[in-house]
Design a protein that fits this description.
With about 80 residues, this protein is an alpha+beta fold. The protein has two helices and three strands, in the order E-H-E-E-H. The longest helix has 14 residues. The chain is globular and about 30 Å long.
Length: about 80
């Protein structure tokens, strides 16, 4: 999905918890990306705008650079 330099450190369906963790990483100066690997639900070949998509239960992944993995995991453990 992304360049192999990025590693998933956290997965959740709770967007509020994801946003809290993003804020903590941002405060610590850790660069991150988010991904929603299961966002293509429904009929194949039909693109639904994000506004109309039901995001309940949507899986979100938080990725950080490989050199920041240990620091990010320590923050996740203290969440």
């Amino acid at each position: 999905m992304f360049n192999k330099k990025w590693t998933t450190v956290y997965c959740t369906v709770d967007r509020d918890q994801l946003f809290r963790l993003q804020a903590l990483l941002n405060t610590e100066g850790i660069e991150f990306r988010t991904a929603a690997p299961n966002q293509t639900r429904g009929v194949i070949s039909v693109r639904t705008p994000a506004v109309q998509r039901n995001e309940t239960g949507m899986l979100w992944e938080l990725l950080v650079k490989e050199e920041e993995v240990e620091h990010a995991r320590a923050i996740v453990r203290n969440l």
